[in-house]
Amino acid sequence: MSLLGTQVDLELGRPADGGGFVGRLEDGRVVFVRHGLSGERVRATITEEHARWARADAIEIIEASPDRVTPPCPHAGPSGCGGCDYQHIALSKQRHLKSELLADQLRRVAGLDLHVAVEALGDTGLGTRTRVRFGITPFGALGMRRRHSRDLVEVETCLLGVPTITSLDLSDRDWPPGDDLQVVALNGVDEATIAVVEWSDDDNVEDAATGEAGELLDDDIGAQWTEVGDIALRVSADSFFQIHTRAPEVLVATVLQSLDPQEGDVILDLYSGVGLFTVPIADRIGTTGMVIGIEASPAAAEDARINLEDRSQARVVEATVTPTVLAPYLANAQRAVIDPPRSGVDKRALRAIAQSSLQRIVMVSCNPSTFARDLKVLLDEGWKLDVLRAFDLFEMTEHLEVVATLSR
């Protein structure tokens, strides 16, 4: 008999990869419960059911954890916005849970018994995101999607956005029903870029515009210039860029320290985006060295070329990271930075990297499970993990960012 839609009382244990906390049904099946917390007893509604596991939402807290807090956003919780699974958890506990999640993946997937403290970059967990994406309801109102759904919860703003974003009166305007609205305000930018996005699997931006207080200007392409230290970077509306307001400076400093680029080095920057790491690496290696950024996104690759146009020691290759693309560059390179998407590194490409003559790799990842999987490949090929750091760049969620340094 199906339990879908029924209510069950559960004792919750460890955090689960992908969100929620682990409980067990009377028949022994694992159930992943959102809006609960380790150590709590909750009443939950079954929202998804499979032969060996299920998902549920905690709708009543029977015995609460001392680490439970009141969510700052009224739209967090069951049947609400799906973006902030950890809003009901004290920030210090959030980071402890993320450390547990990372340690679990390292142990189960990479075979490492290692606990890494997640480093805090903010005090409140709010006002840190430079890019917020809203959905538009059938009535033209602003909304946020429910978990694993295109259904929308009507909202006025997102408290995770930086003040430049939250100060906009976006909810008072009529937007194209069924589209998305991407709002971007990078560091040092006074006016947010507003991009109307046609929903698609590859998130193509169809129409971008910028304007003060949310006013759309159809003739603007939506690119912004931001500064990371003393480096200026152009970032187009549809180019990937680190979302946390402090992420660019912190990650650049960490990657440079870990990579330790020397004058004259040949260095690869894989999945290089707009050149966040490529540009400062180019400045470190001087004109006698060479840094090659490889990036599949045409928009990001074009941004990177503009950002590197005064640096003859840098080259941008617009291509997917594959063994064939890598082959001519791996032969001469000494070091590499790898910053893949959440899906991780292409397996064949990773093996080519692991078996090359590289002497140092710095890997950046926002997904502990694919990071642990890719790390295992490198370890099996004789690489050694020297340093692993973790940063809380996604407050109010189970996500985190890691930077690993490996050597021969």
The gist of it:
By secondary structure, this protein is an alpha/beta fold.
| Main β sheet profile | 8 strands, mixed
Total count of helical runs of at least 4 residues: 8
- Shape call: globular
Strand line-up of the largest beta sheet: 6-20-21-19-18-15-16-17
- Average pLDDT confidence is 91
The structure class reads alpha/beta
Second-tier CATH architecture of the largest domain: 3-Layer(aba) Sandwich
Residue share in helix: 10-25%
- Which fold does the CATH topology of the largest domain refer to? Rossmann fold
How would you describe the overall organization of this protein?
- This protein folds into 3 domains: 1-67, Beta Barrel (OB fold (Dihydrolipoamide Acetyltransferase, E2P)); 131-222, no CATH class; 244-407, Vaccinia Virus protein VP39 (Rossmann fold), CATH 3.40.50.
- It has 408 residues and is α/β, with parallel strands linked by helices.
- Helix 1 (91-110) packs parallel to helix 8 (368-380) and helix 6 (323-330) packs parallel to helix 7.
- The longest helix has 20 residues, at 91-110.
- The chain is built from 8 helices and 21 strands.
- It is globular.
- It has helices at residues 91-110, 163-166, 247-259, 278-285, 298-307, 323-330, 347-354, 368-380; strands spanning 7-11, 21-24, 30-34, 41-49, 53-63, 118-119, 131-136, 142-145, 152-154, 180-184, 193-197, 205-210, 224-228, 231-235, 266-270, 290-295, 314-318, 335-338, 360-365, 384-391, 401-407.
Task: Give the topology, please.
Elements: E1 7-11, E2 21-24, E3 30-34, E4 41-49, E5 53-63, H1 91-110, E6 118-119, E7 131-136, E8 142-145, E9 152-154, H2 163-166, E10 180-184, E11 193-197, E12 205-210, E13 224-228, E14 231-235, H3 247-259, E15 266-270, H4 278-285, E16 290-295, H5 298-307, E17 314-318, H6 323-330, E18 335-338, H7 347-354, E19 360-365, H8 368-380, E20 384-391, E21 401-407
Parallel strand pairs: 3-5, 6-20, 15-16, 15-18, 16-17, 18-19
Antiparallel strand pairs: 1-4, 2-3, 4-5, 7-8, 7-10, 8-9, 10-11, 11-12, 13-14, 19-21, 20-21
Helix pairs in contact: 1-8, 6-7
